[in-house]
Amino acid sequence: MRVRYAFFIAAMILILPLCLSACSGDWGRQETEKPVIYLYPEEETDVSVKLDYRGELSVTYPSYGDGWSVTAYPDGTIINRADGAEYSYLFWDGSSEAVYDFSSGFVVRAEDTERFLKETLAYMGLIPREYNEFIVYWLPKMMDHPYYLISFQQEAYTEHAALEITPEPDSLLRVFMAFQPLEQAIDLPEQELEPFQRAGFTVVEWGGSRVAGGS
């Protein structure tokens, strides 16, 4: 009996730290899904884009190498100088240990997600081309639970994925949506968002991450 009791105590000592870690909100590695970068110079411009990502890149398109070197046009067309091919945007994704801020946000019914995203993204400054591509990618991933907690990240995202763009843009919008699936609605302070004004050489980015841990 004493041997079994001693074994039980030893097992609890090993397991307890793991339980405490799980309860502390340490989510482990998060997927940073499909950030895409649009470039809108006022005239044909050679642009360098470098990403300082505190994580592991999974896929880039076109190939990132030591950074993207492209020729950008006012309509958003991008010619990658490495291969001479045309692209609509610069794409990357990866995983990191970023911890996202859900202290405020929006609790949205699954059936209202399309309308919420369209209205909110337009308010934040995305044009139809951009928010339609956002919705087409994310909406199918937001249909399998009754509710979703959505919070648009600022520092929590940009600190893990800094951009260095040359020449420096006159206006830069980075929209990153972190969301959790919920089985029922919860009370949460509504997040305050600010509209974006485009001026001069404009760069727009959007991406997102689905975070486990909802109720």
Question: Layout of SSEs?
Answer:
Layout: H1 2-23, E1 30-40, E2 45-53, E3 55-61, E4 68-72, E5 78-80, E6 86-87, E7 90-96, E8 106-109, H2 113-124, H3 128-138, E9 147-153, H4 155-158, E10 161-166, E11 171-182, E12 202-210
Parallel strand pairs: 11-12
Antiparallel strand pairs: 1-7, 1-12, 2-4, 2-10, 3-7, 4-5, 5-6, 8-9, 9-11
Q: What does it look like?
A:
- There is one protein chain.
- With 215 residues, this protein is α+β, with helices and mostly antiparallel strands.
- The chain is built from 4 helices and 12 strands, in the order H-E-E-E-E-E-E-E-E-H-H-E-H-E-E-E.
- It has helices at residues 2-23, 113-124, 128-138, 155-158, and strands spanning 30-40, 45-53, 55-61, 68-72, 78-80, 86-87, 90-96, 106-109, 147-153, 161-166, 171-182, 202-210.
- The strands form 2 sheets. A 7-stranded mixed sheet has the order 3-7-1-12-11-9-8. A 5-stranded antiparallel sheet has the order 6-5-4-2-10, with no helix packed on it.
- Strand 4 and strand 5 (78-80) form a beta hairpin.
- The longest helix is centred in the N-terminal third of the chain and has 22 residues, at 2-23.
- It is globular and about 50 Å long.
- Residues 1-27 have low confidence and may be disordered.
What are its keywords?
alpha+beta; five-stranded antiparallel sheet
Count of DSSP-assigned helices: 4
Please tally the β strands and state the result: 12
Terminal Cα span: 40 Å
Largest sheet, in brief, is:
7 strands, mixed
Gross geometry: globular
Q: Which blocks of ≥5 consecutive residues have pLDDT under 50?
A: 1-27
User: Roughly what percent helix?
Assistant: 10-25%
> C-alpha Rg, in Å?
21 Å
| Percentage of β-strand residues | 35-45%
- Which series of helices and strands comes N to C? HEEEEEEEEHHEHEEE
Instruction: Let me know the average pLDDT.
Output: 88
**Structural category:** alpha+beta
